[in-house]
Write a structure and sequence with these properties.
two-stranded parallel ribbon; binds nicotinamide-adenine-dinucleotide; Rossmann fold; 8 helices; globular; binds uridine-5'-diphosphate; 16% strand; alpha/beta
Length: 316
């Protein structure tokens, strides 16, 4: 069972599990995801879709071997209708009630449970790069807190079910990921920069562009997630690409790859207070425990992502 199956990551996960020969039940209420992400699975008798809000009690017929809880708004952009600042209560409910209901399914079925957590639980980190042992630096009432604190609560609840009920849980802390089926209009850096570059518009770099991120191509991420799912690990594991890049460099790379050479424009900070200055995963655990590390370079990953944006723009 995958919650958030109609989303960017949930749809890729559904594909991967089906390719491994599993049957998949996908749940989604389409609050930020879309049916098109699953359209290619229509008619696949190993895939079942249930339109459902996971903040409400979940019933899935038949035996479930694994529950992967990926349902949650995920974009921090306040200007986007699907950004969690515009869905604050739904975000907290997906992290709190959605996690509770999903854990309930795992408990009842003696199933493996995976929580999709996030690098945001580290907040605006004071430790760099971020190891799983770092407790984070999070404002509990800031604009990002609905997401950060929901995920922190979700992690605590997951560990409570593991410790108290013996549920076979794991937690993946996902760092910025990109690739086909990501939201093209969510206002985040990858989407904005590619859209702007394709339209020949200047790429909008917020602030001085010296804040950093580490971007992971979706196929690499899904490989790490699958290895964690089939492991017997319970402690959180960072999955992301440790290659750190400034937002200015990142924008230049996209501008060059698209080839219209529109250039960059530096804008006053438009992002949420608490926009982390640096973010980079320490993936020692994933390397040691899962024998995983990302293989796809930013250049190659963007090369696979830009055509998707072109297709989507021509559909729109
Ligand atoms: P997404 O918006 O594409 O997918 C989330 C899906 O969850 C959507 O299809 C949405 O409709 C669904 N959903 C939300 N609330 C729901 C509810 N109450 N009931 C049923 N469905 C609901 O986002 P994504 O990028 O695929 O993110 C998936 C998960 O991974 C999220 O939990 C997110 O926090 C986490 N994550 C993603 C990234 C990233 O870079 N993409 C980074 C860190 C963590
Ligand atoms: N950003 C930017 N221009 C944009 C969109 C985002 O400079 O058009 C910056 C943003 O301020 C942040 C970084 O890019 O510092 C990554 O932002 P994103 O929204 O992609 O995700 P985050 O990593 O903050 O969750």
């Amino acid at each position: 069972m995958i919650t958030g199956a109609a989303g960017f990551l949930g749809s890729h996960l559904s594909d991967r599990l089906l390719a491994e020969g599993h049957e998949v039940v996908g749940l989604d209420n389409f609050i930020t995801g879309k049916p098109e992400n699953l359209a290619h699975l229509a008619g696949n008798d190993k895939f079942q879709f249930i339109r459902h809000d996971v903040s409400d009690y979940i019933f899935v017929p038949g035996k479930v071997d694994a529950v992967m809880h990926f349902a949650s708004p995920a974009s921090p952009n306040p200007a986007s209708p699907i950004g969690y600042p515009n869905l604050p209560i739904q975000t907290m409910k997906a992290g709190a009630l959605g996690t509770h209901n999903s854990l309930g399914v795992a408990f009842a079925n003696k199933a493996r449970f995976m929580l999709a957590s996030t690098s945001e639980i580290y907040g605006d980190p004071l430790e760099h790069p971020q190891k799983e042992t770092y407790w984070g630096h999070v404002d509990p009432i800031g604009e990002r807190s609905v997401y950060d604190e929901a995920k922190r609560f979700a992690e605590a609840l997951t560990m409570a079910y593991h410790r108290f009920h013996g549920v076979n849980t794991c937690i993946v802390r996902i760092f910025n990921t990109y690739g086909p089926r990501m939201h093209i209009d969510d206002g985040r850096a990858v989407a904005n920069f590619i859209q702007q570059a394709l339209r020949g518009q200047k790429l909008t770099v917020y602030g001085d562009g010296q804040q950093t991120r580490s971007f992971c191509y979706v196929d690499d991420l899904i490989e790490g997630i699958y290895r964690l799912l089939v492991s017997d690990i319970h402690d959180p594991v960072n999955i992301g690409n440790p290659t750190e890049i400034t937002i200015e460099q990142f924008a230049k790379e996209i501008d060059d790859l698209v080839g219209k050479k529109a250039g960059l424009v530096f804008q006053k900070k438009q992002f949420l207070a608490g926009d982390p200055l640096r973010r980079q995963p320490d993936i020692t655990r994933a390397k040691d425990w899962l024998k995983w590390e990302p293989k796809i370079s930013l250049h190659d990953g963007l090369g696979k992502t830009i055509p998707y944006f072109k297709d989507q723009q021509s559909i729109a």
